[in-house]
Structure formats: C-alpha cells, structure tokens
Amino acid sequence: MTSDLTTYMKECKKLIDGELNGFISQLEMPSELKEAMLYSVDAGGKRIRPILMLATAEAFGASKEKAFHAASAVEMIHTYSLIHDDLPAMDDDDLRRGKPTNHKVFGEAIAILAGDALLTQSFEVISDSLLRDDQKVKLITLMARAAGPSGMVGGQIADLSGEEQELTLEELEYIHHHKTGKLLVYSILAGAVIGDATDEQMSHLKQFGEHLGLAFQISDDILDVEGDQEKIGKLPGSDETNKKSTYPKLLTLEGAKNKLASHYDEALLHLAQVGVGTDRLRSLAKFIIERDH
C-alpha cells in the first residue's frame, strides 16, 4: 500500500471514528445499550465501506464533509451485522477484531438490541445530513435494499441454509454477492449519488462494486485459511469449523487466488469506463485484494 493511500485511509478512518462516536454518544438511551453500541463501533476495523463512499464522492468533486453522515450510516449497518453474525444462533464467534464479541461482554439480549439500535439509527443519520432531499431519499432507498431481504439479510439466510452442505460455485457466489457485496456496492453508489454521477457512470460503478465485493469475500476466505490470528483478529479456520462452503474449499486455494485475480481485473475494467479521477478507487481495490487482515 502506498504512503499516499495509507495516509488517506488513516485520515478517513479517524474522521469516521469521530463521527460515529459523536453520533452515538449524544443520543439519549439506557447506559448499558449505549455502552454496547460504542463497544462494537469503537472496536476498530478498516472502515472499508465508508472510505469507499468518501473516495467515490470525492472522485465526482463532492467534499468529505458532504458525505460524512452517509458514510457513518453504512458503517453502523455493517457493525450491526457483525454483532448479529457473531451470535450463537449465527456464526457463534468469540472474537471480533481481536476483542471478545459483543454478546460475550454484554450478553445475547443486549447484543441483539445494540445491533437493532445501530440499524435503525443509521436511517436517521442520513435524514439529518446536509444532502438535498432527493439525495437523502435515494440513499435511504438504496441502503434499505442493500441491507434488507433482497440484499445482506437474504444473503445471511442463504449462508445459514448452506451450512453443512456442499454448495455449487453459483450458490456460493449468490451468498457472497448478497451478504457482503450488496453493502459494498451500495457504499460506492452512495458516493456517486452524493457526487451527482450520471446513470451510465452509476452502471459502471455498480459492476465495479459487484466484482470488488466478490473479490473482497474471496480474500476473506483465503485469509481464513492462511491468515495470522493476531492480524485478522479471530481464530483462522472458523469457516472449516462451522462447516461452511468457501472458495478455497470449492476451487482449491490456488483456484481461489486465480478467481480473486479475475474479479479484480473485471472490476478495474469497469472502473476505467467511469471517466473521472478514479485513481484512489483503483488503489483501494488493490488494497482490498492484497490485505493481510
């Protein structure tokens, strides 16, 4: 990762961390709920989705400040999904980002409610933003689709149904296109909405995001096989323990790496058609496929 990208990601992460903490800290709610929400929000993470949104908005000439609320909202959605994913009824994980998972610290009931609170609060955050009303409506509609039954939640159901089954590559891609990819694609499209991109540009960015989303998940599957626990923040091999179908399991580790490279190449082909300054998005895409955590 270049020093320029490292600096950019650190700056964006610091800004998003501050915005998220500020949004939640000022709300009136039971102290235990606030503590649980902040525990997971402040646990760290790369903030890939909000950073992609900020970078896309900036590519079209919009300022970071204009996109802060929407970027914070998508990270709230992502964090809620992680809290719920870790629950015993889902993936039953003890560690997340190197720390005990939310339900291990606060109990299952509070963890569920903390996730619910982050999900619902995300929509208010967008509605209170500095964007035009038509942009707010578009973002809220796109986010609901990406996070809801035809998006992330639908992918989670398919993922649970696929446990202990031998899935086909098509079935596995459906899961990851919805569970992981939809919210990542939304992040890019939201930045384009904020920057008033054309329909044609939105179409290419959607294809860029879809290929990048699959590449992101393949990278995760590879890290689950050969990643370092200290870097990835959880025990490697959890997919195998949970008897999940993965790209390395279906394609072999080498085949998964080839598939990763193929999706990356397709993503860049579509990005090249957008017609604005997308160097930073290209750099972020490279980071996503080469990351070690």
Please provide a written account of the structure.
- This protein has 293 residues and is mostly helical.
- Helix 3 packs antiparallel against helix 4 and helix 3 crosses helix 9 (169-194).
- A two-stranded antiparallel ribbon has the order 1-2.
- It has one domain: Farnesyl Diphosphate Synthase, CATH 1.10.600.10.
- The protein is built from 14 helices and two strands, in the order H-H-H-H-E-E-H-H-H-H-H-H-H-H-H-H.
- Main sheet strand line-up: 1-2
Radius of gyration: 18 Å
Share of helix, binned: over 70%
Euclidean distance between termini CA atoms: 13 Å
CATH homologous superfamily grouping: Farnesyl Diphosphate Synthase
Shape: globular
Structural class: mainly alpha
Primary descriptors:
293 residues; Farnesyl Diphosphate Synthase; mainly alpha; globular; two-stranded antiparallel sheet; single chain; 2 strands; 14 helices
Short description:
The protein has 14 helices and two strands. By secondary structure, it is mainly alpha-helical. It has a single domain, classed as Farnesyl Diphosphate Synthase, CATH 1.10.600.
Topology:
Elements: H1 3-25, H2 31-41, H3 48-59, H4 64-85, E1 95-96, E2 99-100, H5 102-106, H6 108-127, H7 133-147, H8 152-161, H9 169-194, H10 199-226, H11 229-232, H12 238-241, H13 247-271, H14 279-290
Antiparallel strand pairs: 1-2
